[in-house]
Amino acid sequence: MNIKQFDSTGELDLYAARIFADMLASKPHAVLGLATGSTPIGIYEKIIDMHRNAELSFQSATTFNLDEYVGLPRDSSQSYAAFMEERLFSHIDLPPERAHIPHGMADDLTDACIQYDQLLAQQPLDLQLLGIGHNGHIGFNEPAHALQGGTHIVELKSETREANARFFETLDDVPTQAITMGIGSILKARTILLAVKGKEKAEIVKQALTGPITTECPASLLQTHANVIVLLDREAGRLL
Ligand SMILES: N[C@@H]1[C@@H](O)[C@H](O)[C@@H](COP(=O)(O)O)O[C@@H]1O
């Protein structure tokens, strides 16, 4: 693992955005895995700045998002589709038909998972951006005795719903299920970029990067991948 620590989140964001710019410069048709949550927001802001300055273009790129809540309409402000639209897609030149997000409102969710995996199989990920949940989840792959490789429906843990309740009016409004890319799909990405910020993530960062490889901490499986870049701000890296 290539672990880099930054004195400020701004420096981390810029470094991550440059990785995207370099990827798109060397491979305009790159397939990019994208993430939601607070962590990537600053990275997307830097990417938008670079796009504004004509330093990068998504015109020929394809993107796949990690996950989506089940049961939230795409135009609901808390959906990850709405998040991506607001935080990135509406500001860049990515053709909308090449921006893939799991379909959490599909009539047949099992079929939606199969279709997502088929698209991923046709277009392998060059670069996957990840955040990490407080319990070590990546995407919405929650700690469990066993993990699934492909896209699947997951029951959200209470701690995950509580952590994400800040985006909803009440805890009861947080969906109980999500559709997520599986660990197998994430680990197939050629390069993985894990970004972590804040002191409340320091303990899980230590466990994920230096602890045992276990499905009880899904992010620890990243230790098995040959090309992971970990970007930490000072607080998230303070226990390493
Ligand atoms: N499904 C997302 C994850 O992909 C994300 O990594 C996590 C951490 O989010 P944050 O960056 O806001 O701490 O939140 C959600 O649960």
From TrEMBL:
PANTHER family per record: GLUCOSAMINE-6-PHOSPHATE ISOMERASE
Pathway listed: Amino-sugar metabolism; N-acetylneuraminate degradation; D-fructose 6-phosphate from N-acetylneuraminate: step 5/5
Enzyme Commission number: 3.5.99.6
Domain Glucosamine/galactosamine-6-phosphate isomerase: 16-227
Source species of the chain: Paenibacillus oenotherae
Name of protein: Glucosamine-6-phosphate deaminase
InterPro entries associated with the record: Glc/Gal-6P_isomerase, Glucosamine6P_isomerase, NagB/RpiA_transferase-like
Matches recorded under Gene3D superfamilies: 3.40.50.1360
Key word Flavoprotein present: no
CDD domains registered for this protein in UniProt: GlcN6P_deaminase
